[in-house]
Amino acid sequence: MKDKLKTCVEWLRSKGVDYADCRLVRRETESLRVTDAHVDSMSRDLDVGVGMRVLSRGAWGFAATASLSMAELKKTANKALQIARASAMTTSEPVVMAEQEAYVDSYTTPFKTDPFEVAADRKITLLLEASEVLKKPKKIKTVEASMDFYRTHKLFVSTEGAQIEQDIMESGAGYNAVSFDGKEAQRRSYPNSFGGDFATSGYEFIEGMELVENAERVREEAIALLKAAPCPDTKTTIIIAGPQMALQVHESCGHPIELDRVLGTEISLAGGSFLTIDKLNKLKYGSDIVNITADATTPGGLGTFGFDDEGVKAQRTPIVKDGRFVGYLTSRETAPVIGQRSNGTMRADGWNRLPIIRMTNINLEPGTWKLDDLIADTPNGIFFDLNKSWSIDDKRLNFQFGAECAWEIKKGKLGQMLKNPVYTGITPEFWNSCDAVCDDKHWHVWGVPNCGKGEPMQSAHVAHGTSPARFQNVKVGVSK
Amino acid sequence: MIGQKKLTERLERVLGQSKADQTEIVYVGNESGLTRYANSYIHQNVFESNNRILFRSVLGKRIGVASTNSLALPDLRKTLADSIEIARQRPENPEFPGLPKPARYKDVDTFDDKTAAFTPRDRAKAVKQVITAAKRKKFTVAGSFATGSSEIAVLNSLGVRAYQPLTSASISMIAMSDDSSGYASSTARRVDDIDVASLTGVAVEKCDRSRNPREVEPGEYEVILEPAAISEMLEWLNYVGLGSKPFLQKTSFLAGKIGRKITSDKITLYDNGLDSRSNAFPFDFEGVPKRKVVFVDKGVARGVVYDRAAALKAKKKSTGHALTPDESSEGAFGLNIFMAPGKTPKAKMISAVKRGILITRFHYINGLIDPRNSVLTGMTRDGTFLIENGEIVSGIKNLRFTDSFTRAFKSTIAVSKETERIESWWSAVGCMTVPTVHLGSFKFSGKTEF
After folding, report:
1. CB B79 within 8 A of CB B47
2. Which residue of chain A has the CA closest to B426?
3. Nearest residue on chain A to B146, judged by CA atoms?
4. Which of B24, B32, B40, B48 to mutate to test the interface with A (most CBs of A within 10 A)?
5. Amino acid B127: pLDDT
6. Rounded distance between C-alpha atoms, residue B423 and residue B336, angstroms
7. Closest residue on chain B to A128 (Cα)
8. Please, which of A306, A352, B96, B427 could form a disulfide with B48 given CB 3.0 to 4.6 Å?
9. What is the pLDDT of residue B248?
10. Which chain A residues are within 8 Å of B363, Cβ to Cβ?
11. Which residue of B has its CA nearest to A194?
12. pLDDT for res B427
């Protein structure tokens, strides 16, 4: 296949293009869905094709085909070229790409057990076992459990001489229980909502999740939520648990630091960003203890890889340092606007999508607190756990996030459970109110397999390393 | 485009070789292009040619699903074998109703030659028209213009043979000044049904009228919700409430309320995949003919959509709303949602508002806060206006709403007689067809800085 891609790249070079790359992606997926303690669906998918990106006369074209025949690949190369020429009809400033070393290299996710080689029976048994514990009482209306595995092979070839092969393995699992008392329904999930937790890892990640061990607690919390008090409308101190912090980082930091969004090229779908270029190295994004890093090398992170989809090596980039906003996620096209080289965040959702700037592992660096000490240090407040709803404005300023479950904090101790908890804020005000972040013993990298962006829609696999953190004077309980 | 004869022949060759008790093949193929523009130039311009072939093999009540995007016969045979092997490996699903029997499908016109042949250059010319018109007002524009063709086929070993070629075209645009923006969009089966010049006029006018936005405080207001805003609310309500899964799980706002009044009697909501005012599509991904399903009839809750598995569980019949077999655990889904028009001309709606807010569209709605009470939250975007004494007096800075759909729509004052077709998450096989709605009470819970 490498020779076929090189032939396409050479043909495009002979047509005088400014730049071109060809990317083969072969992705295998396995999904297991268990509903109410029986196997609802079990499926495998194989998706193979080639995408070609051409820069000609200063404008971009992209074409992709599922056919791997040389004739079809050449046709696709020509299509990408013609599309670039059509794009040039509206271009006033030609695209300039940052300099980049042309790597000839490879990368493979380290893992112990290939999940595609694990017997179906073993996976099913694990999900059924957890489901049986969850489903026991009558008040549990529905139980859903799932596992997903992805094995992706990528081959990247460019007119600059890059030849990069990557093999990425991803695994994830989780479950949720819906309780119902005739009037109200509540949901509780583990280890995270919306499909659970994911990592670049093998089946050992699933075995370490303690799915069965946590089922009873999750079940009882789902039932307890039915009788929980409603979240009050107030301004108070809040402590946010790790998985909900991942969502907080994702929406209020991860998206607004995407430089394509900042420059206006995502406005048509998901909006722009308040983190405009004039704020770089100047804005006090958060309090002094807030440190956020974009790290595509975090071991096991779902946003971990060797090279991005324009051949730039995975990197670790400071985003917020001691509270100050210091960095963006960039590409070869956008980085020169701020006088930099790409920090390697261009990824595509498969062969048939154009690479765009995506989050990698956007991590809130650990602080110094133990969670028990932090709760003990909080006279009054609310502890928020696991995300349930999310909404933020089109510049990523006004956000409102809901959690599955919360607990009152009274005199330094967790008190009664609260249902339908919601908190809201304005991004920089909120992060500047952060006065405590828990330490590395509480720190976990939460995999998010469904980050949406772009047109046509692309779903990216990203992650967030977080630990619980405390924020002051936050508005909560606005759902009425 | 492969064409019905060639495609069906190829798939039947593989279907005939299956050793399973029952076998189903779902084919989804597309050739689609999308031109994306921002800062008044084309920055992304893409074309894709792809197939997806899904096999569902049944051994007793054991079901295996495997899929590929290769139409090569050896790959199809291997995928069929994989689906049978998966079925062997898993336990029985006692709730599996079996595959459907053959049915007749309504003849629906879903294909347009000109749309299928529309080129990147054609799209670029249209985008240039948008850019040029906005430039006259010194506005920049951002948006996308997508055109494409698809083929969808469902075959099974019981004799189902469903095939439908489709085209679709969708455009969206945002005109922007330093302190304002205006939005317009449209979707259709035929690209000629999209009036680019008129849409550009709407986006530019909204941008112009919303300059120097005022700030208004959150609270309870009368509102006029334009079709894009209604569509965004209905997308979430569909996800959390109108399908079989949330209804059976009791998390839907319709669960336990069938036959009860939940909104004003001016509100009727239904799904109809056979109505050509939508991006119609005559069968679902099990090959079951689509039926019209009424969710809310003149304010009274009536029901939800079903696929065969959910229908068996609920002791109902499938309404023809199954998703592809790999997504079957998500339950049935309405793809052609309508809010029925009313009797009020849209042009007269603003004049009926003493003090209120006109909303063009929403951003980032979420409906998972309290789905049983249909609570939604989201931000206004791209054209939010203050109305006083029956006239738009200024643009306003964007607001966050948090409100229950059923509570707010109990206060419906008027529904426009005109409807618009709005692109949805599943535009190739459906869309939203919705009017403008005037509500007496809508709750805003927060504001932002622009």
Report:
1. no
2. A457
3. A456
4. B48
5. 96
6. 10
7. B91
8. A352
9. 95
10. 271, 393-394
11. B368
12. 73
For residue A444, which phi and psi values (nearest 5 degrees)? Answer: -145, 145
Rounded to 5 degrees, φ, ψ at A270 are -105, 5
Residues A196 and A265 placed together within one structural domain of the fold: no
Residues A205 and A260 occupy one common structural domain: no
Q: Which of B193, B188, B177 is nearest to B142 (CA)?
A: B177
Provide the domain count of chain A: 2
C-alpha B91/C-alpha B431 separation (Å) is 37
CA–CA distance, B283 with B399 (Å, rounded to integer): 40
Backbone angles phi and psi of A143, in degrees to 5: -125, 130
% of chain A residues with pLDDT over 90: 96
> Does one domain contain both A123 and A204?
yes
Residues A125 and A254 in one domain: no
**Closest-CA residue in chain B for A422?**
B369
Nearest-CA neighbor of B283 among B335, B247, B242? B335
List pLDDT tens digits, range A190-249: 999 999 999 999 999 999 999 999 999 999 999 999 999 999 999 999 999 999 999 999
pLDDT per residue as tens digits for the range B334-353: 999 999 999 999 999 999 99
How many residues are recorded in chain B? 450
Among B162, B158, B155, CA closest to B13: B155
Contact between chains at A389 and B369 (C-beta distance less than 8 A): yes
Q: Are residues A72 and A191 in the same domain?
A: yes
Instruction: Please say if the pLDDT value at position A115 is more than 70.
Output: yes
- B366·A80 Cβ contact <8 A: no
Helix (H, G, I), strand (E, B) or coil at B60: coil
What is the rounded average pLDDT for all residues in chain B? 96
Q: B301: exposed, middle or buried (C-beta count within 10 Å: 0-12, 13-18, 19+)? A: buried
Q: Which of B31, B40, B47, B427 would best serve as a mutation to test chain A binding (most A beta carbons within 10 A)? A: B47
Chain A nearest CA to B231, separation (Å): 15
Q: Among A28-42, A96-110, B281-295, which is the least confidently predicted range?
A: A28-42
CA angle A441, A386, A476 (to 5 degrees): 110
Residue of B28, B40, B50 to mutate, testing the A interface (most A Cβ within 10 Å of its Cβ): B50
Confidence of residue B95 (pLDDT cuts 50, 70, 90): confident
Q: Indicate whether A422 and A310 sit together in one domain.
A: yes
Mean pLDDT of chain A: 96
All structural domains of chain B: 4-209 (3.30.2290.10), 220-447 (no CATH)
Does A389 contact B128 at a Cβ distance shorter than 8 Å?
A: no
Do A209 and A240 fall within a single domain?
no
Q: Among the three residues A191, A226, A261, which one is the final residue of a domain in this structure? A: A226
Does the ipTM exceed 0.90?
A: yes
> What pLDDT score does A38 carry?
87
- Nearest C-alpha neighbor of B360 from the set B405, B398, B403: B398
φ, ψ of residue B178 to 5 degrees: the values are: -65, -35
Cβ contact, residue pair A43, B326, below 8 Å: yes
- Cβ of A394 and B63 within 8 Å? no
Contact A393 B379 (CB under 8 A): yes
Tell me, what's the pLDDT at B295?
A: 98
Domain that holds residue A111: 2-226
Nearest to B91 among A124, A141, A456 (CB): A124
CATH number at residue A101: 3.30.2290.10
8 Å CB contact of A46 and B37: no
Residues of B in contact with A265 (CB under 8 A): 36, 38-39, 43-44, 142
Final residue in a domain of this structure, among A226, A260, A275: A226
Structure tokens at A317: 């980039």
Reported as a single tens digit per residue, the pLDDT across A247-270 is: 999 999 999 999 999 999 999 998
Q: Name which of A89, A180, A391 is nearest B124 (Cβ-Cβ).
A: A89
Residues A219 and A234 in one domain: no
Of A92, A141, A390, the CB nearest to B249: A141
